[in-house]
Amino acid sequence: MTAGPLRVGLAGLGTVGGGTYTVLTRNAQEIRRRAGRAIEIVAVADLDQEKAKALTQGRCPIFADAREMLAKTDLDVVVELIGGYGFAKDFVMAAIAQGRHVVTANKALLAVHGREIFPAAQAKGVSIGFEAAVAGGIPIIKSLREGLTANRIEWVAGIINGTTNFILSEMRDKGLPFDTVLKEAQRLGYAEADPTFDIEGVDAAHKITLMSAIAFGMPVKFDQAHIEGITRLQSIDIRYAEQLGYRIKLLGITKRQAHGVELRVHPTLIPAKRLIANVEGAMNAVLVKGDAVGHTLYYGKGAGAEPTASAVIADLVDLARALHAPIEDRVPALAFQPAQMQDMPVLPVAETQTGFYLRLRVKDQSGVLADITRALADGGISIDAFIQREPAEGEDETDVILLTHTCLEREMRLAIARIVQLSTVVGEPVTLRVETFA
Questions:
Q1: 170, 207: one domain
Q2: Residue 102 forms part of a structural domain
Q3: Tens digits of residue pLDDT in 91-106
Q4: CA–CA dist 95, 139 (Å, integer)
């Protein structure tokens, strides 16, 4: 007996919503062969009624208010592609209360309000699908939640924001300053008119928060993530990193440690020989270390209409296959059985361990490097590599660039406090973290 169609209500017909409608319509037969039943969009909601009419061509009812669509249409699942925290949260919670499954690409909503949304869905016996919320078309959520389920995940690190990766790639390739490249990214459509969430690392923090919860079986803790963006990064540091054999990427990183979990986003030096260091332009990549499988790398388009639609529809296919299965027989939203979730503490960034890149402006005098080395050694910090530039003609100051071995950030901060007291050090040091992924 052939199962009836999965009835979908699509809220939000922007870039991803339009792509979802298009791909689901175009590939309907192929998707049905995989899912075992048809997946049909039976209603859409968008404020722009003319756009909705042009897209749907009269094939389904159109609502201006997504809540009205929810109230007046018999739906199995709602796809929330509205974005934001406010209305989208109210809509998702209303759908859950009515027993509707939810698929969303809204990483901000789940990262900020997941501690309310996921338990509500579990209590109501409905699923939350969010493959599209992290890294666009890359199936990283499914990989963490299902493909790597035999592993004790040790850490996850990702280039998970295409805007910042495009900017850093252009700064490296062309030697241009951040502000100039940002304007070009906006002109090309890689950056929003207001790019704050991207360039300040917030978008990446939303995504690494969700991956951390799935990797370690803990509640989402976006409010405890350490977040730094790329707005203060200078082209000169990108050039020095290259000379040392490294590239700088904005990474989201989460690591399991003995006393908690690291959860951080910041510009990071990576050895140029690592595959993830060679991810350029607006592409995304996620590196996962499991105890059994070792290192695995997931690469692809992290945004765009059809790549993200691919992830939305993958969640719909999973729902179509398991629509009538009891909640305890479905794959848990956060990978671990709800009763087995652990409220692991997020470590303060001062208690995390990385290597460090340190650029110092110093007076051109003998003994300068020895003084700096001594200040580091007093904190148990050793030097891995260094560059000492010759001063420009007629100048009595120059740059010293150091790479340290792994140390506690707290110890590095204390060492820097000693270094800035040296009479030969001019101005504030520039520090960046280093990850080797050895």
A1: yes
A2: yes
A3: 999 999 999 999 999 9
A4: 25
Residues 405, 384 contacting (CB under 8 angstroms): yes
Residue 387 backbone phi and psi in degrees, to 5: -130, 130
Q: Do 118 and 76 share a structural domain? A: yes
Closest CA to 281 of 304, 265, 261: 304
Q: Residue 170 sits in which domain range?
A: 140-301
Residue 383 backbone zone (phi > 0: left; psi -120 to 50: alpha; other: beta):
beta
- CATH of residue 165: 3.30.360.10
Catalytic residues: 207
Residues 181 and 158 in one domain: yes
- Tally the C-alpha atoms within 13 A of residue 366's C-alpha that lie toward its C-beta: 0
Among 119, 143, 148, 99, CA closest to 323: 99
Instruction: Count other C-beta atoms under 10 Å from residue 90's C-beta.
Output: 12
Token pair, residue 122, equals: 């579990």
Torsions phi, psi for 83 (to 5 deg): 90, 165
> Residue 62: CA atoms inside 13 Å, Cβ hemisphere, count?
17
Looking at 290, 316, 340, the residue that finishes a domain is 340
pLDDT in tens, 326-336: 888 999 999 99
Residues in the chain: 438
What burial class does residue 124 get, using C-beta atoms within 10 Å of its C-beta: 0-12 exposed, 13-18 middle, 19+ buried? middle
**Is 160:209 a contact under the CB 8 Å cutoff?**
no
The residues, any chain, with a CB within 8 Å of residue 319's CB and separated by 6 or more, are 6, 76, 77, 101, 103, 127, 129
Q: What is the pTM of this model?
A: 0.96
- 338: exposed, middle or buried (C-beta count within 10 Å: 0-12, 13-18, 19+)? middle
- 144 and 244 share one domain: yes
- Whichever domain contains 366, its CATH number is 3.30.70.260
- For the segment 258-272, the average pLDDT, to the nearest whole number, is 97
Q: What is the pLDDT of residue 2?
A: 61
Do both 161 and 294 map to the same domain?
Answer: yes
Cβ burial of 339 (10 Å; 0-12, 13-18, 19+) is exposed
Distances (CA, A) of 192 to 88, 186, 347: 20, 6, 32
Number of domains making up the chain: 3
CB 234 within 8 A of CB 429: no
pLDDT at residue 55 greater than cutoff 50? yes
Task: Cite the DSSP H helix spans in 217-333.
Answer: 235-243, 305-322
Is 327 found in the same domain as 260? no
Q: Is residue 288 part of a domain?
A: yes
Q: Which residues on neighbouring strands pair with residue 226, listed in sequence order?
A: 264
Domain stops at, among 314, 340, 366? 340
Q: Are residues 215 and 86 in the same domain?
A: no
345 lies in some domain: no
